Amino acid sequence: MTGVNGDAGASVDMLEVLKAASGAVEGEMERLVPASEALHGRIHDAMRYALFAGGKRLRPFLVSQSAKLFAVEPSRALRVGAAIECLHTYSLVHDDLPCMDDDDLRRGRPTTHRAFDEATAVLAGDALLTVAFEILAAEPTHPDPGVRCRLVEELAKAAGRDGMIGGQMVDMLAAQRAFGADEIVLLQQMKTGALFEFCCTAGAILGQARPDEVTRLRTYARDIGLIFQITDDLLDVLSTADKAGKAVGKDAAAGKATLVSLWGVDAARTKATELADHAIELLRPYGTTAAELVALPKFLLARES
Amino acid sequence: MTGVNGDAGASVDMLEVLKAASGAVEGEMERLVPASEALHGRIHDAMRYALFAGGKRLRPFLVSQSAKLFAVEPSRALRVGAAIECLHTYSLVHDDLPCMDDDDLRRGRPTTHRAFDEATAVLAGDALLTVAFEILAAEPTHPDPGVRCRLVEELAKAAGRDGMIGGQMVDMLAAQRAFGADEIVLLQQMKTGALFEFCCTAGAILGQARPDEVTRLRTYARDIGLIFQITDDLLDVLSTADKAGKAVGKDAAAGKATLVSLWGVDAARTKATELADHAIELLRPYGTTAAELVALPKFLLARES
């Protein structure tokens, strides 16, 4: 199944590609979220502390690569990528708070509320969420304000009460009773999948692509999101904190069911491989322009952090 | 000074006007933030608990009244009013958190984190902030997407790192050292003034008014914002918890300087009266269409809660 399409991504060095994409979006983030000497500069410091903490920058990569399929000017995709990274970072800052996951470490260094304080972390998260919409709505993101409004609306839906935040809420409930596989897939779809969908469809929206192409990219994003979740769960079970750069074994300790705990390691890995084949098949119409997006699922399957 | 213009607002029963405006915007909020039977319905419940807690709905009133000056279709102003009320409510929910002001009561009933839990309050605040932008960006807010983008961008700036959130940050620092009057005015301008400005200019933006009219409404909003802050500080000093519906004497207890503590009660009241005269003068060109906006500053000067 993956033969022909797999070839499109065969020569891609994903680490190099991600590194280049990461450097580009970090430059954009640097311009959009600069430090400040103002009386309230501490809020900028906390935002930047959380933003510039490394990370794979997978979401901006998805925006830029999906935008490439529709010949979108790269600077526009970079702005959307920076916005999504601000939003993703806000979710991490708030998730790490003592009243949520109570994490002391993130990517090997103190979480924002540990490095600053809880109140500053709450505010920095709020400001990162807010600036994401400011970036999307501003003129340089796209000359057509209809495109910008659509991006704002889609991101708000993906990140909001019936998307990422709703998923967080369900995740809290998951600790209280045993979830089945369907509920866990729904949870994942809301908590992380909706944002992946936004990233992949953003490229199509920026390129003012046909609705069926938006749908195709959305389906690809669903596959990728689920692969990401399964491989994350596998890491939680199989990796060491040293390799993963964060605490592992947390789901089991919290008594939370995951797809891996329900299906077992081997079946979960098989499912992820099937999803990868499906994702790659979806990109066939785009040929080698989609090389990086084709290479991504296999890269995720092999990841160690 | 206030003779002629004051007359424009002389026959306005502000309590009645605010009550009608409040009923209209609450109907809109009810439609835009409905309850949900979904697995994650608890997030909707918490959002609604925070949203439908009474309150004067002063900000939606400012949007609707400023929109009236430019003959904007009322349903559009109501949507913007509902969005701003979602955003204002998020700021209250997060401000009340234990790591921020640690308030147990808001408008005479348990704060959101007391009625639910801290994590749910953080998430509900995040969701209220997010839905504000979703509402503004959606087509029914205005047929011209350029107008909608401008509203999103202006609200994000008013509410963000260099606006309301920056003001919150400065407020935290204010507990650590004595602020002068200039710093307190700057703090107020960021913390509450920027959102008042958004409300009053939103009407002009919806009406695609000339830049000088946007500026006029912005100046009116600055006056109103400062009057609101001074009268709030006066209430904190002079009122009882029973009348105010919340804890009073908190600024003094926290050792925070306010304009009232720096200037004294009488000078603060005089300053507020001067600001009211100035605000009313600004509305002269709009005649009786501005009756409610003309009546507002005097209403604020007389308020007891």
> Helical amount among residues of chain A, as a percent range?
over 70%
- Average per-residue pLDDT of chain A, rounded, comes to 92
- The CATH homologous superfamily of chain A is termed Farnesyl Diphosphate Synthase
The biggest sheet of chain A amounts to: 2 strands, antiparallel
Main sheet of chain A: which strands, in order across? 1-2
Q: In what range is the share of β-strand residues of chain A? A: under 5%
Largest interface: A-B, 56 and 56 residues
Overall 3D geometry of chain A? globular
Order of helices and strands of chain A: HHHHHEEHHHHHHHHHHH
Per the CATH scheme, the topology name of chain A is: Farnesyl Diphosphate Synthase
| Contiguous uncertain segments of 5+ residues of chain A | 1-5
Q: Which oligomeric form is depicted?
A: homodimer
CATH class of chain A: Mainly Alpha
Rg of chain A is 19 Å
Instruction: Give the tally of β-strands of chain A.
Output: 2
Number of separate structural domains of chain A: 1
What is the CATH architecture descriptor of chain A?
A: Orthogonal Bundle
Quickly give the structural class of chain A: mainly alpha
Q: Give the end-to-end Cα distance of chain A, rounded to a whole number of Å.
A: 27 Å
How many helices of chain A in DSSP terms?
16
